[in-house]
Amino acid sequence: MATEEGAETTSPLDDVMEEIRRELVRRVAADDRDANREIYDALEDE
Questions:
Q1: Confidence (pTM)
Q2: Phi, psi of 10 (to 5 degrees)
Q3: What domain of life does the native source organism fall in (predicted)?
Q4: 8 by DSSP, 3-state: which?
């Protein structure tokens, strides 16, 4: 929904979905780092 000023309002569902997306991205990134730990460590040492 848009207000008269053009700013979008979010519903509680939108807020929850955004939190779920952020958590999912965080978990996938953490799993990727763990699965590729040797590569990340080698890049840090360069």
A1: 0.60
A2: -115, 145
A3: Archaea
A4: strand
Beta bridge partners of 8: 2
**Separation CA 19–CA 27 (nearest Å):** 12
SS3 for the chain, per residue?
A: CECCCCCECCCHHHHHHHHHHHHHHHHHHHHHHHHCHHHHHHHHHC
Rounded to 10 deg, the angle between the 37-45 and 12-35 helix axes is: 80
Q: How far from 2 is each of 6, 12, 37, CA to CA, in Å?
A: 6, 15, 44
* Residue 5: per-residue pLDDT: 62
